[in-house]
Automatic annotation (TrEMBL):
It catalyses: Hydrolysis of terminal non-reducing beta-D-galactose residues in beta-D-galactosides. Residues 397-605 form the Beta-galactosidase trimerisation domain. It comes from the Bacteria. The active site is at residues 150, 307. Residues 614-673 form the Beta-galactosidase C-terminal domain. One of its GO terms (cellular component) is beta-galactosidase complex. It is an enzyme of class 3 (hydrolase). GO terms for biological process: galactose metabolic process. SUPFAM superfamilies: (Trans)glycosidases (SSF51445), Class I glutamine amidotransferase-like (SSF52317). GO terms for molecular function: beta-galactosidase activity; metal ion binding. This is Beta-galactosidase. It comes from Micromonospora sediminimaris. The keyword Hydrolase applies. The keyword Amino-acid biosynthesis does not apply.
Amino acid sequence: MSLPVTPKVPFGGDYNPEQWPEPVWDDDDRRFTLAGIDTVTLGVFDWALTQPAPDRYDFGLLDRIVDRAARGGRMICLATGTGAHPAWLARAHPEVTRVDFDGRRHRFGQRHNSCPSSPVFRRLSTELARRVAHRYADNPAVVAWHVGNEYGGACYCDLCTAGFRRWLRERYGTLDALNAAWYTTFWSHTFTDWDEIEAPSALTEHWRGPDHTAFQGITLDYRRFMSEAMLANFRDEKTAIRESSDLPVTTNFMGMYRPIDYHRWAADLDFASWDNYPPEGSSPAWMALSHDLIRGLKDGQPFWLMEQTPSMTACRDVNPLKPPGVMRLWSWQAVAHGADAVLFFQLRASRGACEKYHGAVIGHAGRADTRVFREVAELGAEFRRLGDATLGARTPARVALLFDWDSWWALEMSDGPSRLVRYQQVVLAYYQALWDAGVDVDVLAATADLSSYDVVVAPALHLVAGDLAERLAQVAQRGGSVLTTFLSGRVDVDGNAFLADVPGPLAPLTGVRVDEWDARGAEVVNPVRLGTGAEELEVASRLVFELIIPEGADVVGSYRADWYAGTPAVTRNTYGAGHGWYVGTALDQRGVSWVVRQVLDRHGLAGPYPDVPGLETAARVTGDGARLLFLLNHGTDAVEVTATVSGVDLLTGARVEVGDPLRLDPAAVLVLRDSGRAGTSS
């Protein structure tokens, strides 16, 4: 099963007409047509309306909503309605609500409040999905199914504890194996009966919050279990849908979201989708990394941008407004990185509750002459002109970046050497360097096939499991380059330290051993000198300073201060026909970028405009071999470059020849269809 079949990039978003009287629907419909909105996501939070009582279903309102959208010629992504359970369910079955990390049973309220292990929740949510799919499966306007909504959170109730024990039996088989994996001889923790095992929470193994645990192995497994428990909920509903429909099924992810390992979910989704709400102050590279991560879930298959705000969010202390042009720019960035749909939350602003000030295509006054509406309509017209030119196009990357939830979890719950190291920040620093160089990147699971990549970047690969070390070594053996960093190769699949020199199984590839490591506060800086001669560069390093002893590796950078001044900080090891690089400290961005550029230069990998401030480049290749080059100016100043390929700008129809001057104003976008055929990509 693959993506929904559509004639063009679907454009629209979440629509909740059940919140308004039906005469408003007519006004909305006319405005949708003006804005070029051809796709609506319906029914995400309709459980209380479609099942108002345990023994009663009422699809009358949803029937009218679906019928109105279909008559308007809109494509429908139809939700199962299980994004939040109804009040009657929590009252009739209190066990359906979650118990939080501190041991408190929640009552009805909010969303993300359903225990994933509750048999009642699983039965009733599955039945609702079954009925929705059966009722609308033959409606030709429906192109995809949307299960749940932004899965997340965790539950620590007795049902989840019992489910955890069953999960552990399947994983380990015997208590002896479990005790060995969890290192339970420490602190007299040896388990002699499965029923002795508790969910790790503030009442058991934790103090000072979810990241401070006495037994990393127990907490690591509980995070894996909880991710898979919610996946079981998704599978329940998808199975029910399949009784009536073969249309593609998805759920909306949240990019780099720590509680759920999206790699473990990927095989169960027919296509990936996600909601782009970047953190305040994030760079364009943060969004690009998130897009590439979602695209990588399905082996490079395009994804849907299921949600983004057309103007502002409403869930933070401060909610900045997207300036003119930024909504369009970020939408095209998603397409540049593999999006085959661009959708918003929300199409009409809610009148009440916590999202009433969240951005919308149509505001409370229902006007079509606002700046936001005009920008949305202009973008809709662009997608209409674009047609199917980008649909199905793939990203031809020769660089892979590993993003590993197990390493994220294990690193940030480790009691040493530093709790100031944040996995996502380390990964983003290395992705930023790749983004600045203009290279296309596949962001992959640690279990992915690496045989087609010239460069593999694996920052903070704290946990190394299975045959990963061997597969990384094979990349270098055949002539590729592997780059990894401090705190990599530290623990095995159970979170236990390797009984070997650091970096454990990565040592042969990197040609180093780390005997000691120093950790300081963020205010402490140790300069690092990189390179030699005319290319020498001094940069800053912080947080963790590993004391590296080369065992075959060449020294590329050295510390300049403290008692270990003059010792290696960055090394390069010849391994087979390639190299294994090791960075033993948290370099500043200049330092990270210098190292990354050394790696890329060996393979002749760089985009057409590396280091042009704010200018992003990305490529996609269509099924017929045409190469699409995207140029996006995220800077505050105009950018002037020279065309490196000939082709046609798909947004304006203008012809471009090699050598022509190109000017991109702030927030400008160019989508150039190369006249030649696709070759090797940068």
